[in-house]
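This part of the workshop introduces the protein records we will be handling. To make this concrete, we reproduce a full record directly below:
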Amino acid sequence: MLAAAVALAGSAVWMAAPVAVAEVVNVNYTCKTPIGVKSAVSPIDITGVRSGSGYKITMSWQKGVSSSPVELGAGSMKPSATITLGGVDSGTLKVTGPANAAAIPENTPIKISDLTGTYTPKATGKVTFTAAVLTIEALGTTTTCTPANSPGPSLTLDVTASGGGVSDDGSAGQLPQTGPEDSAIALGTLGATVLLAGAAGALWLTRRGRTAPARR
Protein backbone atom coordinates (compact mmCIF):
# COMPACT_ATOMS: atom_id res chain seq x y z
CA MET A 1 0.00 0.00 0.00
CA LEU A 2 2.87 2.37 0.79
CA ALA A 3 4.49 1.73 -2.59
CA ALA A 4 1.18 2.37 -4.37
CA ALA A 5 0.74 5.65 -2.51
CA VAL A 6 4.23 6.80 -3.47
CA ALA A 7 3.59 5.86 -7.11
CA LEU A 8 0.29 7.77 -7.09
CA ALA A 9 1.93 10.86 -5.63
CA GLY A 10 4.70 10.67 -8.21
CA SER A 11 2.25 10.40 -11.10
CA ALA A 12 0.31 13.41 -9.80
CA VAL A 13 3.48 15.53 -9.73
CA TRP A 14 4.40 14.37 -13.24
CA MET A 15 0.94 15.28 -14.58
CA ALA A 16 1.22 18.75 -13.04
CA ALA A 17 4.51 19.53 -14.87
CA PRO A 18 4.51 22.46 -17.34
CA VAL A 19 3.47 21.53 -20.86
CA ALA A 20 5.34 22.48 -24.05
CA VAL A 21 3.90 21.87 -27.50
CA ALA A 22 6.33 22.13 -30.44
CA GLU A 23 5.51 21.89 -34.14
CA VAL A 24 7.73 22.23 -37.20
CA VAL A 25 6.18 24.98 -39.35
CA ASN A 26 6.96 25.77 -42.99
CA VAL A 27 7.88 29.43 -43.35
CA ASN A 28 7.84 31.07 -46.77
CA TYR A 29 10.51 33.77 -46.57
CA THR A 30 10.68 36.74 -48.90
CA CYS A 31 14.25 38.02 -48.73
CA LYS A 32 15.40 41.48 -49.74
CA THR A 33 19.00 40.98 -50.81
CA PRO A 34 21.59 43.38 -52.27
CA ILE A 35 20.92 41.82 -55.71
CA GLY A 36 17.14 41.73 -55.59
CA VAL A 37 14.22 39.92 -53.97
CA LYS A 38 14.41 36.16 -53.49
CA SER A 39 12.14 33.63 -51.80
CA ALA A 40 12.69 30.33 -50.02
CA VAL A 41 10.65 27.96 -47.87
CA SER A 42 12.20 26.44 -44.77
CA PRO A 43 10.69 24.31 -41.99
CA ILE A 44 11.26 26.13 -38.69
CA ASP A 45 11.56 24.41 -35.33
CA ILE A 46 11.48 26.36 -32.05
CA THR A 47 12.15 24.67 -28.72
CA GLY A 48 12.22 25.91 -25.12
CA VAL A 49 14.17 24.52 -22.16
CA ARG A 50 13.85 25.79 -18.61
CA SER A 51 16.88 27.84 -17.55
CA GLY A 52 16.80 29.51 -14.14
CA SER A 53 13.79 31.82 -13.94
CA GLY A 54 13.34 31.78 -17.72
CA TYR A 55 13.62 29.59 -20.80
CA LYS A 56 16.39 29.05 -23.33
CA ILE A 57 14.69 29.36 -26.71
CA THR A 58 16.33 27.73 -29.74
CA MET A 59 15.25 28.43 -33.33
CA SER A 60 16.35 25.97 -36.02
CA TRP A 61 16.17 26.03 -39.83
CA GLN A 62 15.89 22.68 -41.58
CA LYS A 63 16.67 24.15 -45.01
CA GLY A 64 18.82 26.99 -46.27
CA VAL A 65 17.39 30.37 -47.23
CA SER A 66 18.53 33.00 -49.74
CA SER A 67 21.98 32.69 -51.36
CA SER A 68 25.02 34.75 -52.29
CA PRO A 69 26.45 35.39 -55.77
CA VAL A 70 29.93 35.08 -54.27
CA GLU A 71 31.44 32.65 -51.80
CA LEU A 72 31.04 33.59 -48.14
CA GLY A 73 34.23 32.77 -46.32
CA ALA A 74 34.22 31.20 -42.87
CA GLY A 75 33.10 33.69 -40.24
CA SER A 76 31.82 36.24 -42.76
CA MET A 77 28.07 35.62 -42.30
CA LYS A 78 26.28 36.57 -39.08
CA PRO A 79 22.60 35.61 -38.61
CA SER A 80 19.97 36.85 -36.15
CA ALA A 81 16.19 36.69 -36.00
CA THR A 82 13.13 37.77 -34.09
CA ILE A 83 10.34 35.58 -32.74
CA THR A 84 6.85 36.99 -32.26
CA LEU A 85 5.29 36.30 -28.85
CA GLY A 86 1.58 35.62 -28.47
CA GLY A 87 -0.93 34.28 -26.00
CA VAL A 88 -0.59 35.94 -22.60
CA ASP A 89 2.53 37.81 -23.76
CA SER A 90 3.32 40.08 -26.68
CA GLY A 91 6.25 41.70 -28.44
CA THR A 92 9.29 39.99 -29.92
CA LEU A 93 12.24 37.94 -28.70
CA LYS A 94 15.62 38.33 -30.41
CA VAL A 95 17.68 35.22 -31.03
CA THR A 96 21.28 35.17 -32.25
CA GLY A 97 23.88 32.64 -33.25
CA PRO A 98 27.50 32.18 -34.30
CA ALA A 99 28.93 33.15 -37.67
CA ASN A 100 29.31 30.42 -40.29
CA ALA A 101 32.06 27.96 -39.31
CA ALA A 102 32.71 26.85 -42.90
CA ALA A 103 32.71 28.68 -46.21
CA ILE A 104 29.40 28.87 -48.08
CA PRO A 105 29.79 28.35 -51.85
CA GLU A 106 28.34 30.91 -54.26
CA ASN A 107 24.73 30.51 -55.38
CA THR A 108 24.10 27.98 -52.61
CA PRO A 109 21.21 28.27 -50.12
CA ILE A 110 22.60 29.70 -46.88
CA LYS A 111 22.18 27.27 -43.98
CA ILE A 112 21.41 29.25 -40.84
CA SER A 113 22.94 27.97 -37.62
CA ASP A 114 20.73 27.46 -34.55
CA LEU A 115 19.83 30.79 -32.99
CA THR A 116 19.21 31.13 -29.27
CA GLY A 117 17.84 33.66 -26.80
CA THR A 118 16.49 33.80 -23.25
CA TYR A 119 12.80 34.33 -22.57
CA THR A 120 11.66 35.42 -19.10
CA PRO A 121 7.88 35.08 -18.53
CA LYS A 122 6.09 38.31 -17.64
CA ALA A 123 2.71 36.63 -17.27
CA THR A 124 1.26 33.27 -16.29
CA GLY A 125 -0.43 31.14 -18.93
CA LYS A 126 0.25 29.92 -22.45
CA VAL A 127 2.78 31.78 -24.60
CA THR A 128 3.24 31.13 -28.32
CA PHE A 129 6.45 31.58 -30.30
CA THR A 130 6.21 32.28 -34.05
CA ALA A 131 9.01 32.78 -36.58
CA ALA A 132 9.36 36.43 -37.61
CA VAL A 133 12.15 38.37 -39.37
CA LEU A 134 15.50 36.77 -40.23
CA THR A 135 18.51 39.06 -40.74
CA ILE A 136 21.71 37.96 -42.49
CA GLU A 137 24.76 40.22 -42.36
CA ALA A 138 27.57 39.28 -44.74
CA LEU A 139 30.45 41.10 -46.44
CA GLY A 140 29.16 44.49 -45.32
CA THR A 141 25.64 43.86 -46.67
CA THR A 142 22.34 43.07 -44.94
CA THR A 143 19.66 40.68 -46.17
CA THR A 144 16.24 40.79 -44.50
CA CYS A 145 13.87 37.84 -44.81
CA THR A 146 10.24 38.24 -43.78
CA PRO A 147 7.60 35.47 -43.58
CA ALA A 148 5.05 35.95 -46.37
CA ASN A 149 2.61 33.19 -45.43
CA SER A 150 1.56 34.20 -41.88
CA PRO A 151 2.98 31.02 -40.30
CA GLY A 152 1.49 29.57 -37.15
CA PRO A 153 3.38 29.17 -33.85
CA SER A 154 6.27 26.70 -33.77
CA LEU A 155 6.13 26.48 -29.97
CA THR A 156 3.58 26.91 -27.19
CA LEU A 157 4.79 27.05 -23.58
CA ASP A 158 2.71 26.94 -20.41
CA VAL A 159 4.69 29.37 -18.24
CA THR A 160 4.55 30.90 -14.77
CA ALA A 161 5.76 34.45 -14.20
CA SER A 162 8.63 34.61 -11.72
CA GLY A 163 7.72 36.47 -8.53
CA GLY A 164 4.06 36.56 -9.50
CA GLY A 165 2.72 38.14 -12.65
CA VAL A 166 -0.44 38.81 -14.55
CA SER A 167 -2.40 35.70 -15.40
CA ASP A 168 -4.52 35.22 -18.49
CA ASP A 169 -7.58 36.53 -16.63
CA GLY A 170 -5.81 39.81 -15.81
CA SER A 171 -5.27 39.14 -12.08
CA ALA A 172 -1.83 39.75 -10.61
CA GLY A 173 0.11 37.60 -8.17
CA GLN A 174 -2.38 34.75 -8.19
CA LEU A 175 -2.11 31.09 -9.04
CA PRO A 176 -3.46 30.06 -12.46
CA GLN A 177 -7.15 29.19 -12.57
CA THR A 178 -7.73 25.48 -12.18
CA GLY A 179 -9.94 23.31 -14.33
CA PRO A 180 -11.26 19.73 -14.09
CA GLU A 181 -7.85 18.24 -14.86
CA ASP A 182 -6.17 20.39 -12.23
CA SER A 183 -8.84 19.36 -9.71
CA ALA A 184 -8.21 15.71 -10.51
CA ILE A 185 -4.50 16.22 -9.94
CA ALA A 186 -5.18 17.99 -6.63
CA LEU A 187 -7.50 15.19 -5.49
CA GLY A 188 -4.96 12.59 -6.55
CA THR A 189 -2.23 14.32 -4.56
CA LEU A 190 -4.54 14.62 -1.53
CA GLY A 191 -5.46 10.93 -1.80
CA ALA A 192 -1.79 9.98 -1.97
CA THR A 193 -1.08 12.07 1.13
CA VAL A 194 -3.91 10.38 3.05
CA LEU A 195 -2.68 6.94 2.00
CA LEU A 196 0.86 7.78 3.06
CA ALA A 197 -0.37 9.05 6.43
CA GLY A 198 -2.47 5.89 6.93
CA ALA A 199 0.42 3.61 6.00
CA ALA A 200 2.76 5.45 8.37
CA GLY A 201 0.19 5.17 11.21
CA ALA A 202 -0.29 1.43 10.63
CA LEU A 203 3.47 0.89 10.58
CA TRP A 204 3.88 2.82 13.87
CA LEU A 205 1.09 0.83 15.57
CA THR A 206 2.58 -2.48 14.36
CA ARG A 207 6.01 -1.61 15.72
CA ARG A 208 4.51 -0.39 19.01
CA GLY A 209 2.56 -3.65 19.38
CA ARG A 210 5.72 -5.68 18.90
CA THR A 211 7.70 -3.74 21.48
CA ALA A 212 4.96 -3.62 24.16
CA PRO A 213 5.97 -5.59 27.33
CA ALA A 214 4.02 -8.75 28.10
CA ARG A 215 1.54 -8.59 31.01
CA ARG A 216 2.28 -10.65 34.13
Notes: Residues 4-18, 164-216 have pLDDT under 50 and may be disordered.
